[in-house]
Amino acid sequence: MKILITGGCGFIGTNLIDLLLRSGEHELVILDNLSTGNIRYVLDVLKSNGWCRLSDLNFIKGDIRNSSTVKEACKGVNAVVHLAAHAGVTPSVEDPFFDANVNVMGTLNLLNASRNVGVQKFIFASSNAPLGNQSPPMNESKAPGPLSPYGASKLSGEGYCSAFFGSYGLQTVVLRFSNAYGPLSLHKNSVVSKFIKDGLSLGRLTIYGDGTQTRDFIHAEDLARAITGILGSDSDEIYGETFHLGTGTETKIIDLANIMRELLGNGVEIVFEPERAGEIKRNYSDITKARRMLGFNPEVEIKEGTTRVFDWFMKQSREKVINAVAVSGSE
Ligand SMILES: NC(=O)c1ccc[n+]([C@@H]2O[C@H](COP(=O)([O-])OP(=O)(O)OC[C@H]3O[C@@H](n4cnc5c(N)ncnc54)[C@H](O)[C@@H]3O)[C@@H](O)[C@H]2O)c1
C-alpha cells in the first residue's frame, strides 16, 4: 500500500512512521512544511529501523495549503493519513485566520485531491476540541460546541470528511485523539513533554489550579496502532464514521505530576498557579465505539508510557531538552 502521511515529521507522524516501517509492508510518502515538525525525528526513526538515508523515503517539503503540491503528493497513493495541522488551542486563539487556512483549506485541498486521483482511504486526525465544554466522557453522540478556533477548524475538517464520503464516496474515517504523549515530542507544549522540560531546566512542575483536573493520556504508539489497524481493515462499516481514541481512563494532573517527579528525581518541586480561564475541569474519552468497530485496545498504561517518554528525553542531549522551544501547542 502506498500511504501519504501529511505532517509526517511531527510528533504523532513520526511515531506512526516508526510503526509502519517496522511492518516493512508499505511505501510511504511524507508531506510536511517543517513548520513545527523536525526532519531529525524522521532520520532517527529511519536509522532505528535500519534505513540509511532520507532519500529512501519519499519526502516532500511542502504546504497542504498549496493545491498543486497536494495534488502531486496524492498521485498513486492508496491511503492518506492527514495529520498536518496548526495544532493547539492557544495558537488558534492568537491567529484564528491562520488556523482556519491550514486546518480548513488545507484539509479541503487534501480531500479534493484524494477524490480526484482515486485515493481509497482517508484518515483525518481530529481532537476532543470540537466538543467543547461537556460533561465527560466525550463520545461520538455529543453535539459539538467548540470553544476555540482550533475546535472549530477541526470540526470543519470533520464536516468535510463526512461530506466527501456522502457526496463522492471517499472512504473517510475521523479520529478524535485525546491528549497524546510519547517520544519524538521535544517540540510539543503538551503537559507530559512540558513537565519533563520544566523539571530538567527549572527544577519545578507548574500546575494551574489545584491539580484535580483530569485528562485522558494516550500513548502515541497506541494511536499509531489504531491508524495501522484502519489502514489494514477491510470493514466497510467504518467509513464516514467518527471515533474517539483515548484510554477511557481519567488521570488527575496532580497524579501525573507526582509520577513525573518520581522519574525526574525528588529535588523537583510542584508549584501551583491560579487556574487558567477556559480550562475544562474533567476530560476523558468513551472508547466503546472504537473498541467495537475498530478493535481498538490501548495497551500502554500511564506509568509505563511516561517512563518510556522520559527515557527517550534522557537520550537527547540535556542542552537540547533545556533549550527546546515549544512550537506545537497542546490540544
Ligand atoms: N498531540 C496531541 O495530543 C493531539 C491531540 C488531538 C489531536 N491531535 C492532532 O493530531 C495531528 C498531529 O499532531 P501532533 O501532535 O503530531 O502535532 P505536530 O505539530 O507535532 O505535527 C504536525 C505536523 O504538521 C506539519 N504542518 C503544520 N502545518 C503544515 C502545513 N501547512 N503544511 C504541511 N505540513 C504542516 C508540521 O510541520 C508538523 O510536522 C494534528 O492534526 C493535531 O491536531 C493531536
Topology of helices and strands:
Elements: E1 2-6, H1 11-23, E2 27-32, H2 39-48, E3 58-61, H3 67-74, E4 79-82, H4 89-94, H5 96-117, E5 121-127, H6 149-168, E6 171-177, E7 179-181, H7 191-202, E8 204-208, E9 214-215, E10 217-219, H8 220-232, E11 241-245, E12 251-252, H9 253-264, E13 269-273, H10 288-294, H11 302-315, H12 318-323
Parallel strand pairs: 1-2, 1-4, 2-3, 4-5, 5-6, 6-11, 7-10, 8-13
Antiparallel strand pairs: 9-12
Helix pairs in contact: 1-2, 1-8, 3-5, 5-6, 7-9, 9-11
The structure holds nicotinamide-adenine-dinucleotide.
Nicotinamide-adenine-dinucleotide is lined by residues 7, 9-13, 32-37, 63-65, 83-87, 102, 106, 125, 127, 177, 179-180, 190, 328, 331.
Structure, explained:
With 331 residues, this protein is α/β, with parallel strands linked by helices. The protein folds into two domains: 2-180 and 217-245, 3-Layer(aba) Sandwich (Rossmann fold), CATH 3.40.50; 183-216 and 248-283 and 300-323, UDP-galactose 4-epimerase, domain 1. It contains twelve helices and 13 strands. It has helices spanning 11-23, 39-48, 67-74, 89-94, 96-117, 149-168, 191-202, 220-232, 253-264, 288-294, 302-315, 318-323; strands at 2-6, 27-32, 58-61, 79-82, 121-127, 171-177, 179-181, 204-208, 214-215, 217-219, 241-245, 251-252, 269-273. Strands 3-2-1-4-5-6-11 form a seven-stranded parallel beta sheet, with helices on both faces. A two-stranded parallel ribbon has the order 7-10. A two-stranded parallel sheet has the order 8-13. The mean pLDDT is 94. The protein binds nicotinamide-adenine-dinucleotide (NAD). Residues 7, 9-13, 32-37, 63-65, 83-87, 102, 106, 125, 127, 177, 179-180, 190, 328, 331 line the site of nicotinamide-adenine-dinucleotide.
